[in-house]
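Late entry, evening session. Most of the bench is empty. Finally got around to the prediction I had been postponing all week. Sequence below, unchanged from the version circulated by S.P.
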Amino acid sequence: MEKKDVPGLLANELLPKIHGFCRLKLGSDDEAEDLAQDICVEVLRSVYKGTEIVNLPAFVWKVSNRQYYNWLRKKKRRSGTVSIDAAEFWLSAEDDVEEKIILEEQIALLRRELAHLTQMWREATVLYYFDGLSVDEISKKLGRSQGTVKWWLHQAREELRKGLNIMREYGEKSYRPGRLTMSCQGNPGADGEPMRCSERRIAQNVLLAAYRKSLSIEELCAELGVSAPYIEDEVDYLTQNELMKKDPKGRFRTDFVILSDHDAYEECRQTRQTLFPAFYERVITWLDGKQGILSTPRFNRPGWAWERLLWVYIHAAVQSCVERFKRAHNIRVDFSKMPYRPNGGRWIALGFDNSKGERDEPEEDWMAYDGPVHKGGGFFAEGFFHSWSGTSSTPFFSIPTEVFALSTDLLEGRKRLDCLTEEDKYLFSLAVENKLWLRQGERSDFALNFYFIDFAADTELAGIFKEFYPTLEPLISEAWNGIRKRHEAGIPSDLQWQMGNLLSNGLNSLVPMCLYDAYHEGRLSEPDDNNRTWLSLFVTGGER
């Protein structure tokens, strides 16, 4: 190594590691700065004295330890007390302080490096050096040949030797862990996969760290600052549940698309700036033109006013066109093509990186929505829930599916309210409690409080919306092209086959944007305590 290169390498690459080492050992920023300066001076002095340096990082590591021990001796002479890992030890004259500290440091380093060995190397090393087993005994215990065990021990010694001579650098997630939330399209697994798989912070950060490139267990350990046994356990679980995959070199990669919450927010902003108010004007003009037919009893079973019906029709018309666009352009992986999962589920996972925390800018009102969300089982229920009208999807998910199924049976005439079983009476009481049905005065009559049409009417309505599709298709296409171009290059190439399942969610925001504009234009009825939860709920008697 040329002498002239050392100052630049020291300042640009090694100084942050040196300071991190000093901060870890001493705790105090002021003392860490002083020790870091002493280390740098000693390294430069050695270089200009002619010391041969083959591996500068390893040399800096040795100098750093030597300067640290010198600092301890100086502190002992000053006070007679030395701090090790925040514990204070009183030193007597006969104590060999330096030897004790060096021994403790080496044991700690050895433990650190053992924690980063791969599983079989680590197990063989512990059994041989700590448990005192022979190679033959280890061979029998692990079910591998003696030659393999000897190879593992040899490789482990080499890795330990290398590890003890470097300043190991942990990744950002070791001190600033990210946060990942999960959703999916399709049918979740029996235990709630894939959402349940990522509940733990270690699992979340493993998935985030290995998203853009494959990482080995050792690299994941360094990135998270977590020992290999814990990382191995998480990676094995995530791989078994197909949220990660293992490549031929034994490295691991996250196997689904992840976007940041900030990106999702920006998508909605870009879509609104690009398409509105033109998109809204086309929607409301077309629906007004269909008011005559859409207000008839065939499509307006509860007998609502047009202002109340628009809460549903804006949702149903726009979402119908968005879904038709996705199918026509093969944007999303269709359910029939989604892979079956080991636990019986069939889904495409969706990941949202919340590592940056709350956005600096406040969320605009039209962004505050949840949808579309679905339920099925002999019926189809789809809802959009918008917090600016005082609603959330929590009641929708908390109500058992059987409540919607019973309501559908009553509306289709398959069951009668005066002939319910005890179980059905309980389910209907839940429907009343959650205001899906409203009691009429003192009588035992009940009024429907959500939008419902039978299967035949739903088929006819879909045909009406199909006529509307050419009007909206160019604008939906414009929105989709913008979304795709902004993200396509940043999504790993092997995941692009499923990127539409996540990216196309940005098109769903067209619904609450239209609802928001219609509401503030005075086109929609005022929400009240009885109806606000189910304003945009659409239910039909047949599964789509």
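Two things to note before I forget:
Residues 117-164 form a domain with the Arc Repressor Mutant, subunit A fold (CATH 1.10.10.10).
The CA atoms of residues 256 and 347 lie 11 Å apart.
Will write this up properly tomorrow.
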